Please model this.
Amino acid sequence: MLTLLAKLLKALNSETGAWALAFAFVLGMMVGFTPFWRVHNILILLFALIFRINLSAFIVSILICTGIAYLLDPVFHSVGSAWLSSESWRGVWEAMYSSPWWRITQFHHSITLGSIVISLALAPLVAVGSYFIVVNYRLRIQKWFLKLKIVQALRANKFWAIYSDLRG
Amino acid sequence: MTKQLRQSTIRWPGVGAFFIIIGLLVGFSFLLLDTIIKWTLESSLGTLNRAEVNIASVEHGWVPLSLTVSGVQVTDPAQPENNRVVVGELRGDLDLGELLVGRVIFDQVNATGIRVNQPRQSPGEVYTKLSKDEVSKAAGERWEALKMELPSMDEVMAQVELQTDTVIERAKSNLDEQKQQLKQTREALPSSEQLAEYETKVKELLEGDIESATELAERREQLEELKAKFRADRDSVKAFKTQVETAKNVVQSDISALRKAPEEDLAKIKSFMSFDATGLENITALIFGEQIRSWSKYVLLAYEQLAPMMQRADDTAEEGPLRSEGVWFTFMEANAPPEFLVRNAVTEFAFGETILDVNWQNITHQHTQLGQPTTFQARADNSAIWDSFNLTGEMALKDNGFDARQQWQLKGAKLNDIGLSDRAEFMATMAATLLDSEGSVAVRNGLLDGDASVRLAELKINASGDSRWAELLSQALGKLNRLDIRTEIGGELTAPTLSLNSDLDRQLGDALRSTATDAAQTKLAKLQQDLTAQVNAVIAEQSPELAGLVDLEGLASSKDAKLEDLLKSQLEDKLKDKLKDRLLKKIGGG
Model:
């Protein structure tokens, strides 16, 4: 069972290019910032799994950004409310609201809309920033990081051994 | 030679992982669907209710698409230890076609085992504190205000200035004064001898021979002099008569006052022995307020429970968001069908063993879209606990606010063992009564406006208490056998206020007074006896005086009449006749 799971993770983590990791962080941020049970998150998950996105980075990004989202909810709410309350957009919202397909996206929820807007706005910055961090990490920080006792302890367990063997 | 593998853009294992994840999520949701619905309902209904909502269990059915919710407890935000409403079971059939396009439409909803104002096992959480007054605390303060002592007979006697003594003294004084004045005016009266002398003189003047015209003139002059005396004496007699009349009136008035004085003093003592009026103020609300407020929860159920939820469902976009929950905006077109609608519902209210079905139509918070109000009717005749009951009403949430009206008639409701007060110092229970009630109430812009009558007949109240006031109140309540209470309904929809008016304050005041005076009856009887004896002694003195005055009045009238006769005496004609005869004799005799 562990072998099967490790094989799956190996396949999903086979993409370790800097941009693959950077996109993983961006997609994870979008899932983490927006309310979880939304249709767009299924699409993001599908995108992350089908295309060559690093899954570990994706999951780590989701966890971190979910925590940050809790703090940013008031901002998401303000942005979403402001846009949804805008009279000039009312016609658009009414048209979308009358469509069952758009209703499924739950766009008329203030935090949902606000968090999507902010996620999209931050996406280029996060992508470039993540790319920069990954490249610099591999150049300067990785060796030091791997020497940390806690990291060595984690690498000593059975699952990591199977995972490492498969990775070769 | 380096072998370069050209990787596909699609990561096929990822596709498998996606379907596994989605499959797990769907399967997990499917297995926990009832729990998810339960949590969702508890959360959303709790938000609308502003206090904790508990649901025992939720079951769903696929064909037809239905939902059964059992054991719903809705905490009262104003009294978290109570549920404002409890629903035994609620079952609704959903319209699948409408659900697919995002509308929650129930064709039929049946709710059974509904009870209001039920105690909770543990206090429910209140999410938003209401600012309305705590009724029980206010009631408690008023009970404290009523805790007063009834004054004893001796205390009352010390405070009350008895009037009988004053009346006696005044009567005696008046009599002395009148006697004195009568004595003075009586001295000016002509004596009987004087009147006889007047008669003799008048007779002499009228009957003697007349010799000449000169003598005639002299007699006329003497008669005028006499008449002047008569007039003076007549004025004295009239003055005396007036004085006698005055004295008679004064004495009669005093005797009358003397006779009334003991009764008036006793009435005064009795009134001093009653409770202070401020203590009895609005005792109707004090004793029956809690119970009527509890009954009103049934009458106002539609408004108190459903209307605020409708309003909050509509107002969420304008309210501040709960943390991490956000706000759902609505962009409905004017002619769009409502998103939430219960076309028909039957809610089954339980009153002990009696069940009352209330039929609802068009329950929604989007009446503008629907174009119709939510309506409800209930009619039940010859049930175990009442003869007839009829309730009709409608409500609608419009652009200008909540608009509703309802009216009801209840006849012959048989009530037993209804608790009125369970305070340690005063316990009261309505052992039995027959209740009739009718009224109407409307809501305009969130404000209630209505009135209702509550008639309690064949009333039996058992009350008890250790303190003196509680004991007296208990006795007085025990004497009540009917009561009409007029109830004014007002205030805000979320915090209705009831003001109760009845003749209970008067009835109770009389009963308390009666009870208090019963306790002092022996002393009061003795007091009455003493006062009456004092008064009778004075009346015994004054009555002969009054009889004497009547005699004097007769005497004065007799003298007055005699003088009037004397004043009528005419000298002219007689003298002329005599003088004429005399002249004729002289001429005839030669």
